[in-house]
């Protein structure tokens, strides 16, 4: 088929790409974070997982069985998705239900992590062996995966490799002379950030409403816009970092108020324009440690988005 031919053509082109060649020369063990990876036990209750994420300032972790086997990933979006999924009114939870974490007549604060993993369908567990080339990670990132678990020959998690780690690698490689043919091109020339209208929510929409949109659209971030359509903030699952159980009722706050309280950096969204070069876009993501930048027009209205998946 035309699609299959296109895929084969892209693979052949990638094989001759200097950046691809460089990454293919690296082993997965040579990339990513060397920090100890946080693990969640399969029988660990929801309340403990929420508090663990807040203490470690992380949004996700592998969920493992008693014998150390990885069962999948669990993240904050999974937790919130699960909380609302067992409510009779889905996204219409009241303050008391969120405060006690009791919905649909059951105390879900005691629900095991195993039941919650990948509830959102947005964070699958994707392992890559230490001996695999780094291009294995590129393939998974291109398919929308946000983080990869680097494992040893027995499948034991050793460290993680995120899209932010990849941005740093790409940024350094794009600066080199043999990459200038690619790095100097504008995102418009490369066809990035041009083909789809950004998904948005209003400043006055609740955080739960924003999460509902993320869940329905199967996306990872929203452009928060003012009434006149101009960009106000960026909202993603990352903005749930540090959310303790007692703070869950704040998911009923207007999204802009919530971000001001918990994630003020998100209220100053990082933007680019269609004439921004690929190098500038990737450098910006690497420096800001973000996964996407919003493309804006002259009126500061979002007209596109460029992500590391792109």
UniProtKB/TrEMBL annotation:
Domain CBS as annotated: residue spans: 32-90, 194-251, 265-310
Pfam families: CBS
Entry-linked PANTHER family: AMP-ACTIVATED PROTEIN KINASE, GAMMA REGULATORY SUBUNIT, CBS DOMAIN-CONTAINING PROTEIN
CDD domains assigned to the protein according to its UniProt record, in alphabetical order: CBS_pair_SF
Keyword terms of this UniProt record: CBS domain, Repeat
Gene3D superfamilies: CBS-domain
UniProt protein name: CBS domain-containing protein
Keyword Ubl conjugation: no
InterPro entries for this protein: AMPK_gamma/SDS23_families, CBS_dom, CBS_dom_sf
Domain of life where this protein originates: Eukaryota
């Amino acid at each position: 088929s035309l699609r299959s031919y296109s895929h084969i053509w892209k693979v052949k082109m990638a094989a001759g790409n200097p950046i691809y060649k460089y990454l293919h020369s690296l082993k997965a063990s040579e990339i990513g974070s060397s920090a100890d990876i946080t693990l969640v036990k399969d029988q660990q209750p929801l309340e403990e997982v929420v508090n663990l994420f807040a203490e470690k300032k992380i949004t996700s972790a592998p969920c493992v069985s008693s014998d150390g086997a990885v069962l999948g990933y669990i993240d904050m979006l999974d937790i919130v998705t699960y909380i609302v999924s067992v409510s009779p009114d889905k996204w219409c939870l009241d303050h008391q239900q969120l405060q006690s974490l009791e919905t649909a007549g059951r105390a879900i604060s005691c629900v095991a992590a195993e039941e919650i993993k990948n509830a959102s369908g947005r964070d699958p567990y994707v392992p890559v062996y230490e001996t695999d080339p780094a291009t294995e990670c590129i393939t998974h990132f291109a398919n929308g995966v946000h983080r990869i678990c680097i494992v040893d020959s027995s499948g034991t998690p050793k460290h993680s490799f995120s899209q932010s780690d990849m941005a740093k690698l790409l940024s350094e490689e794009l600066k080199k002379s043999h990459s200038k043919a690619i790095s100097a091109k504008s995102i418009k020339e490369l066809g990035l950030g041009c083909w789809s209208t950004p998904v948005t929510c209003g400043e006055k929409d609740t955080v739960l409403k924003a999460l509902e949109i993320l869940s329905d659209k199967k996306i990872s971030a929203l452009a928060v816009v003012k009434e006149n359509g101009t960009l106000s903030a960026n909202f993603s699952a990352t903005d749930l970092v540090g959310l303790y159980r007692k703070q869950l009722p704040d998911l009923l706050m207007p999204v802009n108020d919530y971000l001001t309280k918990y994630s003020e950096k998100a209220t100053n969204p990082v933007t680019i324009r269609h004439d921004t070069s690929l190098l500038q876009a990737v450098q910006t993501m690497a420096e800001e440690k973000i996964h996407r930048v919003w493309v804006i027009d002259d009126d500061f209205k979002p007209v596109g988005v460029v992500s590391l998946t792109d």
